[in-house]
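G., the chain you wanted modeled:
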Amino acid sequence: MKLLIISAFSCIIFASVYSPPGDPLKPERPVDPWVFYTGLDTQESVLAVGMDKKLWVAYDTSLCSVYKLWSGLGVVKRAEKKYPVAEGVPFIYNEKKQTFWKVWQGGKPVKITSKFKKHEIINDRLWMSYDLILPDGNKISMKESPEFIPRKKDVGNRFLYERIFQVDSIPAATEIFLMIDCESMIYGGDIKTTGKFTNETKSKYHFDWGSTYDFTGELKLNTDKETVLRIIYTLNPEQEASGK
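Predicted structure as C-alpha cells:
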C-alpha cells in the first residue's frame, strides 16, 4: 500500500488533480437504504455502506475504524453462513480487529478507547460521529465521511476512495494519527491528503508485467481544520500496468 510524505506543494496540487471542477458524475448507490447495520463475514455488527455499485465499505463500530473496503457485489446472504458476506475483491480487511487510531499527548502515546455515537445522511453523503476516549476520561469528538468519487478517466479498474475527518473538543498538546495500509499500488500519486502522511515501510514486488508497491504509514490529522484523504485503488494491477 502506497504512502507518501505530503509536501506543501502536494497539498496545493491536491485540488487540481483530485477534484474535477464541473464534473457532474455522482456515485451510483447500489441498494436502498445504502447505509445499514448488519452482521458481516464473522463480524457480529458493522455499519455497511454501499458507496457505489463498484465500491463498498464496512465500519467496525466497536473500533470506529474500517473493517473492510471492497469492490464487488456488496453484502450477500449465503444460506450456509451465519451472517451475510462481503462479496468481491478486498482492498482493506481488518480481520484481526486492530485499532487504526493512535493519540499522543505531550509527545507520548496514550492508550485510548473509542465509542461510536451515530450516523446521518447529509446531502446524500454519510457522516459518522464517534469519540476517542482518553485515559483521564476526556473525549475527542470525531466526525468522518467516506465516499466513492467517480472520475471520467477511470473505466472500471480504478476506484477513488475519499475520507474526510473533522476533529472537535481536543485537549492542548494532543495529536491524532490514523494508521494506513495500502497494497498493490503502481502509481506514485495514488495517495493524496491535506494532512501529514509519514511513511513507515515500503515493499516492492516484481512481476513479468511490472512492479507493485505495498506501503504502511500514519496520517496525522489536522486539528484546526478538516483533513481529506484520497486513495486510488487498482482492481487489477497487472491490467493497469500493461496500459501505462
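The helical segments are 8-18, 237-242.

Shout if anything looks off.
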